[in-house]
Amino acid sequence: MSSVMTGAPVAVENPAHTPAERNEAYRKIAVRLIPFLVFLFVLAWIDRVNVGFAKLQMLQDLQFSEAVYGFGAGIFFIGYFLFEVPSNLLLEKIGARRTLARITILWGFASMAMIFVKTPMQFYALRFLLGVFEAGFFPGVVLYLTYWFPAQRRARINGLFMTSFAIAGVIGGPLAGFIMSSMEGVDGLANWQWLFVIEGIPSVLAGIAVLMYLPEKPISAKWLTASERDLVTREIEAENRDPAKHSSLRAAFTNSRVWICAAIYFCVVSGNATIAFWSPSIIKELGVQGNLQIGLVSAIPFIAGTLAMVWNGIHSDRTGERRLHCALATLMAAAGLVLTGMWLHSAVLALIALTIASIGILAAFPVFWSLPSAFLAGTAAAGGIALINSIGNLAGFVAPYMIGWFKTSTGQLSAGLYFVAALEAGATVLVLAFIKTRR
Questions:
Q1: Which of 79, 260, 272, 350 is most buried, taking the most CB atoms under 10 A from its CB?
Q2: What is the pTM of this model?
């Protein structure tokens, strides 16, 4: 079986409908689903990475070392890895609404439970459980979107959904900074304890809302006309019958392209985890004082990354080109991380470099996730997408832990940043070697 992946999708369109009718149907779906899914992922991302802001005070209160923090931040992804594939297979069996509702409610409760942490083992246990509970959400949404959008539209749709990474960074930083600066000692709780409570409650409420808002598939979407439901259903079914696609779980797990995608994603996620978990500490080391100020400054790289993510996804769909759109993004990420490590002596230069890294990292995501759904369908898509995401997200353990280890060993962040930059460079090499543009 060839390990070379083509980088452009093949359109499957229903000739009974005009391009204008197709565009209107998919526009309605995007307007209905994407904002709500973005909202859910913003909550997930904030609950996942708010420990990076809690760290600013929590380590001092609990007498945790940087290595303890790095391990605790990263062990989330071990739980995530172990339960990712089962969660996505369950989604295919019982449906998106119940699966996504269960995930959202449980991660909200796990986040709130962080207020009870007193020891490193308690910290590790709750971070692990948060990973277990959140497992399946991101690949579940990626799979869910394949029920609604054909391959040639997925890079831009993935890009719109994945703006949630950046929106969470834009909102999460200032929000965490405000909570940390204004809630210290209220009702006897530390500011970092309030952070976990205030940011966990909305997830529980949103999980309940999932059951009432999300339809399972186009056929059950009452807000589409009968003609639009037929159009979308036929196009997705025709695409899934493509003999080039694999539909069994075994086919996904034995497909070399799935494992190549997993390796690429591991490298990409290492950079994302670095920005998410360590940017508050990096910004603090640059001399920015005060939790609110750190939160506001940390939003800058994510704002730039949001714009890059949307543009790269749209441009990739318009041109039908995937390979260079992904490779240039990861190369930019590597360069930005190297420059950040070199320029830690200068607040302005380091922030510029961190922004360059964020642009590259976030721009890679929507284009990357258009690749596996181009050759997987059905159960293979459920298992394959989850496998790619779970293996890739192991980098969420490796990168924070290694940066914490380097920081504890050397007293500096630069060595850890160079390590992650090397992984981003590895992603560039893999993309250029194994993704070929369809001619």
A1: 272
A2: 0.73
